[in-house]
Amino acid sequence: MCDLTKSNSNGGNVVNFFLQTDLSLDTRKMKTWALGAVLVCVFLPHIRADDEDMQAGCSTTANDLVFIIDGSSSVGVPDFDQAKRWLINITRGFDVSSRHTQVAVVQYSDTPRLEIPLDKHDSSEDLQEAIAAIHYMGGKTQTGRAIKFATHHVFSPPDRTQATRKRIAVVLTDGRSQDDVVDAAMEAKAQNIVLFAVGVGNEITNSELVSMANNPPSTYVLYTEDYTSIGNIREMMEQKLCEESVCPLIVPDVGSTLRGFDLLTAMRVDKLAKKVQGSLITEAAYQLGARTDITLNTREIFPDGLPPSYVFVSTLRVKSPAHQMKFDLLRVLSEDGARQVAVTLTGADKSVTFTSTSALHKEQSVIFNDRGIKRLFDTNWHQLKLLVKPRRVTCYLDDVPIEEQLLDPGVPIYINGRTQVAKKVNLATTVPILIQKLRLYCDPQQSERETACEIFSVVRQCNWASKWNI
Ligand SMILES: *[C@@H]1O[C@H](CO)[C@@H](O)[C@H](O)[C@H]1NC(C)=O
C-alpha cells in the first residue's frame, strides 16, 4: 500500500486521480493528503508486501507482450489503421508498467522495424498514443525475419528477465510469408516465447499459421475474415492472452494444453476428505464431513486471479441433509470476508446462485431456479456446470443447458483473502456433500468438450457420442 506509483493499489489510484485533476483544485488539501499517505507508509512498516490488499487479474500479470504487425503492401493504409485500432483496444485492458505488462510493437514488410520497444511506456495512455502514431511501411512480407528480429532484439535477454515474466508474441498477418517462418518460430519457442498467429483475410495459408504458432492451433491460431471485422476477435484475443498469463496447466505434463484449476487437488480435498466411491464404480469421490475444513489462501490457488471467461464444473452429490441447506460450493472471499466470486446452492428453493463482483454494483448475483435445475437436489449424482462470460452466465445440469442470465463484467479479485469449498453461507461450517470433480477451466470452449459421462443417466449417450472426455 506504500507504493504510490502503483496504479492498481488504492493509494496509487487516488494519487493518479489527483494528478490528473485540474491543478486549480485545492492543492493544499492534496498536499495534506499526500503527507498523510507518506506518514502512513513510514509508520506502518510491519505491513508486509504479501498482505497487500492487491487485486490480481489479467491486467496486472507480468508479461512481455510483443505485437508483430504486417505492414506489407497488400495491407494498405485503411486496413493498417484498423489493425492499429485493434491493438489499441487490446492494450487498453492492461496495466502497462514495468511491474505488470510491457508492450512492444514491431512492424514488418521486407525488413522489421521496432516501432515501440518494451520498456518505452509506463502508462496505457502513452502506449496508445504511440501505437496511433505508427506509420505504415509497405513492401514485401518477410514474417520469419520479423519473428527472428523480435526474438533477438525486442524481448529482453532471458537472464535479465525475471522467471515469472511471461514472454508472448502475437503475429498479425494478411498473407503468405515470402521467407521461412518455421525455423524462426522454432527458435522463438526455444527461448520460451509463446507465439500466437492471427490471420486476416483469405490470402493466408492455414498451414503456415499453424506451423508458426504454439500448439494446439485451436488455442494459438486466430482468424478473421478481413480487417473490418478484426474487432470481432478482440474479446477472444484478450481472453487468450489472459489465459496464458493467469491459468496454469491443469495437468503439468509435456504436451498437455488444458489450462485452469483442478480445485480438488489444489484445495487438497483429496487429502482432507474421505475417499469414497463416486458416481460410477470406476470413479472416486470425496466425502466431506462437518469437521473437514477446505480453506486455503486465495493467493495459493489463484495467484494471478481469474480470466474474464471460464467454465466452472463440479460433479457432486448433495445428500440429505445437505440438500436442504444453503451453502457456497465454492467461494473466493476478500480479506474482510465478502464474497467476490461464489457458486451457491440453496436447498429451500432448489436454486443455484452465481455471485461475482462488478465495478459498478460491487457484489452482483444471478439466480438459476428453472425447473431443470431442481434435480440437483434429488440426492443423486449430478454435474453442475457454469459457463461464465464477461456479460452472461449459462447454467448446465448433466450437460443440458438450463438457463442463461446476464450480468456485468467482473473486476479482478483481491487475492489476500481465503478460498473455501462447501461452506454454509456466512458461516464457517462445512456442509457434508460428496465431491467428485471441482474444476475451473480457463478456455470457455472447454464447455463444449466437457461431457457429463460420469453421470449414470448420461452415460448411455456417451457410449456412442465421440465427444472428447478428459
Ligand atoms: C475499438 O474499440 C471501439 C470502442 O469500444 C470500437 O468502437 C471499435 O470498433 C474497436 N475497433 C477495433 C478495430 O477493435
UniProtKB/TrEMBL annotation:
Residue span, VWFA domain: 64-241
Xref: Pfam families: VWA
Gene3D superfamilies: 2.60.120.200, von Willebrand factor, type A domain
Keyword terms, alphabetized: Collagen, Glycoprotein, Hydroxylation, Repeat, Secreted, Signal
Subcellular location, principal: secreted
GO cellular component: collagen trimer; extracellular region
SMART domains, A to Z: TSPN, VWA
InterPro entries: ConA-like_dom_sf (IPR013320), ECM_Assembly_Org (IPR050525), TSPN-like_N (IPR048287), VWF_A (IPR002035), vWFA_dom_sf (IPR036465)
Keyword Nucleotide-binding: no
Glycoprotein as UniProt keyword: yes
Xref: SUPFAM superfamilies: Concanavalin A-like lectins/glucanases, vWA-like
Subcellular location: Secreted
Family per record: Belongs to the fibril-associated collagens with interrupted helices (FACIT) family.
Name of the protein described by the UniProt record: VWFA domain-containing protein
Organism: Denticeps clupeoides
Higher taxonomy: Eukaryota, Metazoa, Chordata, Craniata, Vertebrata
